[in-house]
Amino acid sequence: SWGGDASHPDETYLHSSALTCDMYNPQVGMYHPGNVGGQEHEAVYVDPSSSSSYPGSDDCFEMEEEVEKRFYPMVPVPHVPKINGEIPSLDEATMDHERLSDRLRLYELTENKVKGDGNCQFRALSDQLYQTPDHHEFVREQIISQLKSNREAYDGYVPMAYDEYLDKVSRNGEWGDHVTLQAAADKYGVKIFVMTSFKDTCYIEIQPKVQKSNKVVLLSFWAEVHYNSIFPQNDAPRLHTAKKRRWWPFSQHHH
Predict the structure, then answer these.
(1) Among 49, 83, 126, 248, which has the minimal tally of Cβ within 10 Å of its Cβ?
(2) Does residue 8 belong to any structural domain of this protein?
(3) pLDDT tens profile 204-225
(4) For the segment 153-193, what is each residue's pLDDT rounded down to a tens digit?
């Protein structure tokens, strides 16, 4: 199976630049919609099952020197969100999956695979934020709340009536896109790194409007098929058993 989400027509993708991705000096896409709307974004850290869900600084995972050396010295490449990305053919999807797998191996990252039921982006975010993919409905609610409360910051990136878009992405099983990823970054005040299968772009950096934590959310994106949650390989044994998972701290000096 190449992803339970693959039959859905509306997955959003970031249009990659024409630059070639050198695996040892790869390109990174940096996406932020800017200061549209100029509104304050309030982060809400509420775990449906715990009163102290958001990892503190004591839980930070210090990246291995080799991973940091390869992952951060990347040249930013501007990206523009596009709606209604085409679902790749089976052959294209297979090649894309191989490319993504190669990149994950290069950076010594391991996927915690989540269910491909249309909720994969929200499941992957839940796994990163709350140590389990099971709170995906709550994560979707938080993102929808962010989109509703700050519509001026996002409606310019939605090529349909905004209320129609909100109704659409509010539904269980509806695919997330890069607008919902931006809203997630803004809601939780964290940077989101998305390791992609794009030919020209190894990973995308999504910046929050206001950074409230130096923690980083790490996702993989098998375009236009599936999102997963990713972690350093030596953190992999904790994927299903740890009560609290270590996070990657964001290196402020990488630009």
Answers:
(1) 49
(2) no
(3) 889 999 999 888 999 999 988 8
(4) 999 999 999 999 999 999 999 999 999 999 999 999 999 99
- Quick one: which of 54, 76, 63 has its CA closest to 213? 54
Domain extent for 160: 13-249
Rg for the chain, CA atoms, rounded = 17
The model's pTM is 0.71
User: 6 in a domain, yes or no?
Assistant: no
Task: Let me know: does 188 contact 45? Beta carbons within 8 Å.
Answer: yes
Number of domain units in the chain: 1
Residue 114's contacts (CB-CB under 8 Å, 6 or more residues apart) are 120, 123, 124, 127, 133, 227, 228, 229
Q: Is residue 128 one of the residues assigned to a domain?
A: yes
Question: Which residues are annotated as catalytic?
Answer: 117, 120, 226
Domain of 73, CATH number, reads 3.90.70.80
Phi/psi for 181 (5° steps) reads -65, -40
Structure tokens at 53: 């869900």
